Amino acid sequence: MVKQKNVVISLSGGMDSSTLLIHSLAQGFNVTAVSFDYGQKHRVELDRAQSLVDYLCESDIEIANNLKYRVIKLDGLPDLLNSALVSGGEEVPEGHYAEENMKATVVPNRNKIFSSIIQAIALSMYKANNLPTYIGMGIHAGDHAIYPDCRTEFRDADLATFKLGNWDADDIEYYTPYINSDKFKILKDGILSCFTLGIDFDEVYSRTNTSYKPIKIDNKWYSDYKSASSVERIEAFIHLGKADPVEYADETGPVTWFTARNHVEDLLLNRINGKSTQRKVYYFYSKTCGLCNWVSDKMKELSNNYPIFRINSNEELLLSDLLNIDQIPTFVFIEDGKEVNRIIGLKDPKNAESTYEEIENFVK
To answer: Which CATH architecture has domain 6-202?
Structure first.
């Protein structure tokens, strides 16, 4: 018989902590998930957390038996905090996570506030049932530059302080499986956890919110695609080769995944070479396509040197549909966010060099 184990998770409703939730269930933990209402502007994340918990519990009776959920309100705190993320704070900045102005999104001592409460719950559970008990947080490597309370040094010092200040706390440990991972690796783990639990990936991640600037249109919440947290999430989905199931919008209204993806790709390219306008090529392929396999090595080489994005049409179904991809290989030429040309197949089926040359001349 497998010995039971408990984990108390800080569940924000974002992508990272939500993945930690399904990961922990897939690993056989009894999970107590705790969300905090601290006056965050993006309070929609609490609605998404509740929706995810409801979906998981409805999906499987065993999950329902192994999952408890609480929301803790920190009344009286928001107007005492100085942060762009809290109601009354300054405008949430846009751009890439690595930029200096993203420090405005730091909420002073946030993870310490959360961890102190989670530690108290974990220790209480341990004393009640004497089962191995862990403190779960979805902190990851992408947070380290901007958020000091997401770093290994903070986690270890925080745990030491907790054990110093409490009786019987020596057997309580942190559970932070993503602390050296980026969001791409977190999503890959999410795919595995969904498979293990027999749940739908898109259903799970459509019930998460990463946006620090959510947009409400006709009483429905959408994610923005320009704030740093959204950029990092979209970048991870691009690398994963899947469309994000979350719906996006901007000041003009709801937008397609192509629009959100295109913005982030251009932002990333701008960071690399400093250009304000970009040309790029989408290369749609399939692993079962003989012609695609023939040009595969060369396209990998080109994509390592130029803004060329290799897209598996069997996995990126939404983007393929949006761009009306019905034959492969297809090369779509994008300039300033709009299609300006496409090549279907090869210009010369017997000689790929003319196609390579046209692509290189476009993106150089």
So the answer is: 3-Layer(aba) Sandwich (3.40)
Distance of CA 123 to the CA centre of its chain: 30
pTM of the model: 0.83
Backbone angles phi, psi at 209, to 5 degrees: -135, 125
pLDDT tens, residue by residue, 34-66: 999 998 988 999 999 999 999 999 999 999 999
Query: What residue type is 205 in one-letter code?
Result: Y
Instruction: Yes or no: say if 284 and 320 are a contact pair by the CB < 8 Å rule.
Output: yes
**Six-digit token string for 100:** 């200096």
The superfamily (CATH) of domain 278-364 is: Glutaredoxin (3.40.30.10)
Among 18-27, 94-103, 152-161, the minimum mean pLDDT is found in: 94-103
Helical spans, DSSP H, in 133-256 = 152-164, 183-197, 201-205, 228-240
Instruction: Quick: pLDDT tens for 281-305.
Output: 999 999 899 999 999 899 999 988 8
